[in-house]
Amino acid sequence: MGTEERRRGILHTARRDGSVEVNALAALFRVAKETIRRDLHVLEEHGLVRRTHGGAYPVESAGFETTLAVRTTRNVPQKSRIAAAAADLLGDAETVFVDEGFTPQLVAEALPKDRELTVVTASLAVATALAGAEKTAVLLLGGRVRGATLATVGHWAGRMLGDFVVDLAFIGANGISRSYGLTTPDPTVAEVKAQAVRCSRRRVFVGLHTKFGAVSFCRFAEVADFEAIVTDTGLTSAEAQRYSLLGPQVIRV
Questions:
Q1: What was the pLDDT predicted at 17?
Q2: What is the purpose of this protein (predicted)?
Q3: Residue 187: strand, helix, or coil
Q4: Which residues of the chain carry a pLDDT beneath 50?
Q5: How far is CA 97 from CA 35, 148, 199, 239, in A?
Q6: Which class would CATH give 68-252?
Q7: Domain coordinates of the chain in residue numbers?
Q8: Among candidate residues 190, 249, 237, the one with its CA nearest the CA of residue 215
Q9: Do residues 93 and 70 touch, judged by C-beta distance below 8 A?
């Protein structure tokens, strides 16, 4: 097997499994661990993976995005802590936008059920999770449903969202970078997210530490657009401080 074929195989494995380990890859491809480390370095240089201690995980791009079904099985404890901390930032907001994605869905489920709230969302999963809450009115944006994320996209969703002014938006992203802001692979998704940023008075980003430093295809917001960033303790305190210098409070849980 040649070098390029092996690297394609490594990338395929990372995208299929969600992460890879050097030891396992060395055994799978029957090469030295140092060879795998060099391969991962090259793939990282090309923006296809992010290396971790002893392995790597795939970076979402215009050509690759994990499905909602996969996201619901990974890093659930960390995502649940992030969601609970984000929900605590609700304050006196009466109207809320909740983005597509599993972490925003957990935020929606963590919102108080004992007070009147109006929740606007493009996510079928969020709408379903909140549909039975007696004091929560749910407005589901219309549009084309993306099978990967079970959320509506396109100009219908953006136009409907543009008619609202919401108090608070909980927004996710495939990547967040101090240089490039918040990004996502799909232009139609970026359109809805950008509209949510424009129509909200306050904005909170929710996402795992693995999102930080990652850059995807479509930029829809700047870090400075957000009053708070809620993530897990995998983001170092030094890196959190760098993001806070751009404006938002960074909360690590």
A1: 84
A2: Repressor of the lactose catabolism operon. Galactose-6-phosphate is the inducer.
A3: helix
A4: none
A5: 46, 20, 9, 28
A6: alpha beta
A7: 3-58, 68-252
A8: 190
A9: no
Partners of residue 58 on adjacent β-strands: 49
pLDDT, tens only, 48-105: 888 888 999 887 765 566 766 666 767 899 999 999 999 999 999 999 999 999 999 9
| Predicted local confidence at residue 16, as pLDDT | 84
The per-residue pLDDT for 25 is 96
Beta-strand runs (E) in 12-111:
20-21, 49-52, 55-58, 95-98
> 3-13: per-residue pLDDT in tens?
999 999 999 99
**3-58, CATH topology level:** Arc Repressor Mutant, subunit A (1.10.10)
- 27: enclosing H helix or E strand: helix 22-29
Spatial separation of the C-alpha atoms in residues 165 and 200, rounded to whole Å: 6
Structure tokens at 146: 């993306």
Burial 45-69 (b: 16+ CB within 10 A, else e): eeebbbeeeebbbbbbbeeebbebe
- Cα gap 31→9, rounded to integer Å: 13
The pLDDT assigned to 69 comes to 64
Q: Cα–Cα distances in Å, from 224 out to 61, 153, 179, 229, 251?
A: 23, 25, 11, 10, 15
